[in-house]
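User: Quick sanity check before I run a bigger batch. Here is a single chain. Can you write out its predicted 3D structure?
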Amino acid sequence: MPHVIVKLYPGKSEEQKKKLAEAITQDVMKAFRYGEESVSVSMEEVSAKDWVEKVYKPEILDKPKNLYKKPGYKPEDI
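Assistant: Done. Predicted structure follows.
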C-alpha cells in the first residue's frame, strides 16, 4: 500500500514506463514516508478512441472528489 495505477495511451516504451514507475515510487516514498517495499505501480494502456468512455467519464468526470490533479482539457477538445 499504496498502489498507483497509471492509465495512458499505448506507444510508450518499456524503458519509459519503468522510469515513470520509479519516479512515482520515489515520490510516494518521499511524500508518505513509506519504504519501497510498500509501493506498487501498474500501467494500463487505453486507446485514444476508448479514453473518454473508459477513463475520462468514469474516473475523472464521475469521481471529482478523488481527483487531485485535473486534466487541462475537455474530451471534446481532443
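Residues 48-78 form one domain.

User: Great, the batch can go ahead then.
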